[in-house]
């Protein structure tokens, strides 16, 4: 054989690389695969998205490829569902195929959020039943929220009308509701252990929402060797789980099986009932991670939504005044608002819904996972595909909301001023994996907001027309921009 010269070898290498690129870009791209940009070897579509703002990237790709499109990140295929119809069809009509949980950075092996199969079924069934028995959706949990709302009002009176950032107060208030359910008691806002716990939780969530977490999900091998803050995730989670283990031990030492006080007691009793069952899902690891799941779901999203809501009301004082008029007429000033009042307060209910819609704090939803090769809208979706229900595209649908980019409570009011539901209102997602704390979150948002506006007027030192209500975008979430407000007793 005649040896090839350097130019010939270079030409052959270029031809081989070009052939590889063509084969890769055409891989699986037949008539049954959803449309999407051609991936590159190893990187997939990483260069065609902004990992710092996945919501904006998904929006642009939706406009080009339609409501169902496919990406590839590393070796992982990603299906993105946009718009109410596609999300509902997948998560509700095809619930079995699309109902598994996709990769979540926090403790994938244990707990109720990130697991699948029998473990998830048992833990979710137990959690829903226990939370209901502890008062979820009932008068008892409502009274806990009302008590905490009064504590928040007392804390805000101490600001004496001076400007402050409400982040800390709202986080402590909302988290205390979860504490009362999980631990059986609340904390004072200046309790050092409570402050340290919430600081740890905040750092964990900030990392979960960062580009580092997204890259770690889809390029796990590479991110193991690359330096970066993503390596702190395990440390944060382990510190939180260590605190929970100490609390569980205190509960175990004072447990009365005939009189459970809270979620931890109920879980410990279930552990004892399971006895020597080696296949039981009721053990310490699942308990500690489930508590972590409840804290993240029950603290961050609600407190962020409330913080966004106060910013929106600062920007639109006419809406604030109209809510307060309704509160004064229905509730008055001599008792706390209750959930029964909501039926007589259509404008306030519409404002709360519109705050959730506009805030859109979980724009990507949590990822799902296709459990078997599935036919969907004429496409074949391979088993193992990660699915993102792009909830932002649902909450901002021009087909369902007249002015989706504007804060407009009229989206939830009919021509007579009565409250109007919208099928596209899916801030808690849909289907088998709908947020298990949805009922609690709805109660908190209504009761905290109405109690605050019953007691205070919101003031700002800047021109209201200059208040920026556009969100700060993170890789996996949205947050209101930092701001300061004053609360003046009414």
The best one-word shape is globular
Q: What is the CATH superfamily classification?
A: Cytochrome P450
| The top level CATH class name | Mainly Alpha
Give me the number of helical elements.
Answer: 17
Just name the CATH architecture. Orthogonal Bundle
**Range of helix content:** 40-55%
**Spatial sequence of strands, sheet with the most strands:** 1-2-7-4-3
Distance between the termini: 95 Å
Report the average pLDDT across residues. Answer: 90
- How many strands, what sense, and barrel or not for the largest sheet? 5 strands, mixed
- Please report the total strand number as a whole number: 11
Class computed from helices, strands and strand pairing = alpha+beta
- Tell me the fraction of residues in β-strands, as a range: 5-15%
Oligomer: single chain
**What order do the SSEs take from the amino end to the carboxyl end, as H and E?**
HHEEHHEHHHHHHHHHHHEEEEHHEEEE
* CATH-defined topology: Cytochrome p450
Radius of gyration, in Å, reads 25 Å
Explain what the structure shows.
The protein has helices at 6-25, 54-65, 84-93, 95-98, 117-133, 139-157, 167-182, 192-208, 211-218, 220-225, 233-253, 263-274, 284-315, 317-330, 346-359, 391-395, 438-455; strands at 68-73, 76-82, 100-101, 368-369, 374-376, 379-381, 386-390, 456-459, 471-473, 478-480, 486-489. A hairpin with a 4-residue loop joins strand 9 (471-473) and strand 10 (478-480). It has one domain: Cytochrome P450 (Cytochrome p450). It is globular and about 65 Å long. Helix 6 (139-157) runs parallel beside helix 17 and helix 13 packs across helix 15 (346-359). It has 490 residues and is of the alpha+beta class. Its main location: endoplasmic reticulum. One of its GO terms (biological process) is xenobiotic metabolic process. It is found in: Endoplasmic reticulum membrane; Microsome membrane. Residues 1-28 form the signal peptide. Its cofactor is heme.
